[in-house]
């Protein structure tokens, strides 16, 4: 997040603050599953739920569009819960209850999840095989995001630049 603040300060300024332990405990109670420690740490620093008045009921997931890439966004607690409860792959062999989505597109058709059993990061795309263990941990995934933001800041990322403090995807 410090790299986002450095390279795209206007985008960073739009982000809400952290979650509270009470918010996490309530989410765990509602879903019946304990969040992985890495995810808890992330949410206690960055709960990226949109304000209630900005939530669009016509889409599966709402978030701060355009970060970490065009068309997807990190989910806040409410969005995680909603997608967890209504995941398009749930009810079949393509989705497991111990996978908590933390990044998605608006429709919930693709994104990334953390396996609460071991912290590995996987990805799903409706109509394609689900991939488990794409990253060993949330920290490894965020290392890749940090590398991307560093490249964007250096002007060395062909599909994204910064204009007026915001990430602009081409």
Tell me about this structure.
This protein is an alpha+beta fold and 170 residues long. Helices cover 33% and strands 21% of the residues. The chain has a six-stranded antiparallel sheet with strand order 1-2-3-4-5-6. Helix 3 packs parallel to helix 5. The longest helix has 16 residues, at 138-153. The radius of gyration is 16 Å and the shape is globular.
Quick gist of this model?
With 170 residues, this protein is of the alpha+beta class. It is 33% helix and 21% strand.
**What multimeric state do the chains show?**
single chain
**Percent range of helical residues:** 25-40%
Shape, principal axes of CA atoms:
globular
Beta-strand proportion: 15-25%
User: Number of DSSP strands?
Assistant: 8
* Structural class assignment: alpha+beta
- Average pLDDT metric: 88
Major β-sheet annotation:
6 strands, antiparallel
The H/E string reads HHHHEEHEEEEHEE
Spatially, the strands of the biggest sheet line up as 1-2-3-4-5-6
- What is the CA-based Rg, rounded? 16 Å
- What distance lies between the first and last C-alpha atoms, to the nearest angstrom? 22 Å
Number of helices: 6
Uncertain residue ranges? none
Which key phrases capture this entry?
two-stranded antiparallel sheet; 170 residues; alpha+beta; globular; 6 helices
SSE topology:
Layout: H1 2-7, H2 9-13, H3 21-31, H4 37-45, E1 68-69, E2 72-74, H5 77-85, E3 99-104, E4 110-115, E5 121-125, E6 131-135, H6 138-153, E7 160-163, E8 166-169
């Amino acid at each position: 997040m410090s790299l986002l603040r450095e390279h795209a300060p206007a985008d960073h300024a739009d982000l809400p603050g952290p979650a509270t332990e009470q918010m996490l405990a309530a989410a765990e109670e509602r879903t019946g599953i304990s969040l992985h420690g890495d995810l808890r740490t992330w949410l206690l620093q960055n709960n990226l739920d949109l304000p209630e008045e900005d939530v669009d009921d016509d889409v599966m997931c709402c978030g701060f569009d355009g970060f970490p890439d065009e068309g997807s966004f990190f989910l806040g607690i409410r969005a995680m819960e909603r997608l967890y409860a209504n995941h398009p792959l749930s009810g079949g062999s393509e989705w497991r209850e111990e996978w908590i989505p933390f990044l998605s597109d608006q429709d919930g058709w693709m994104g990334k999840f953390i396996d609460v059993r071991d912290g590995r990061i996987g990805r799903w795309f409706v109509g394609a095989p689900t991939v488990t263990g794409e990253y060993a941990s949330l920290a490894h995934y965020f290392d890749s995001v940090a590398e991307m933001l560093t490249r964007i800041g250096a002007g060395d990322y062909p599909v994204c630049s910064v204009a007026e403090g915001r990430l602009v995807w081409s």
